[in-house]
Design a protein that fits this description.
Oligomer: single chain
CATH architecture of the largest domain: Orthogonal Bundle
Number of strands: 2
CATH class of the largest domain: Mainly Alpha
CATH topology of the largest domain: Arc Repressor Mutant, subunit A
Distance between the termini: 20 Å
Largest sheet: 2 strands, antiparallel
Helix content: 55-70%
Number of helices: 5
Radius of gyration: 17 Å
Length: 123
């Protein structure tokens, strides 16, 4: 696993770590089942606070990119199916909420595309 931090970036270090691990898991550079370094080991390797790496791991776990198996450690999960399923669930929730708010289909799409554009710009 290779992680490079950009100290000049406006992106917080935990997000840089999270995004790089997620990208490596998605592309297969980190195979399903790969054991990740402990939080302490990765923090020491990257020169970060333990809490910074712990936050990245927590968010990766919440996104089902990794799974923690107690004392055995943290492992890369099968991202593809989980990511698509969770995205579909979130999209369905958004569609139901937009409908409740009285938005037309076009208005809901514009709001979603605007939010996606902003999120991908922040990356």
């Amino acid at each position: 696993m290779e992680i490079t931090l950009d100290p000049a970036s406006s992106v917080p270090p935990f997000e840089q770590v999270r995004a790089q691990i997620a990208d490596q898991a998605r592309t297969g550079a980190l195979a399903v089942g790969t054991k990740l370094p402990t939080v302490r080991a990765l923090a020491a390797e990257l020169g970060l606070a333990v809490n910074t790496v712990a936050r990245a791991y927590r968010e990766l776990e919440a996104d089902a990119v990794v799974e923690t198996r107690g004392r055995h450690g943290t492992f890369v999960a099968a991202v593809g199916d989980t990511a698509h399923r969770e995205a579909a669930d979130a999209a369905g929730e958004y569609a139901r909420r937009a409908l409740r708010l009285g938005l037309s289909r076009d208005e809901a799409l514009v709001a979603a595309v605007t939010a996606l554009d902003a999120a991908y710009t922040e990356r």
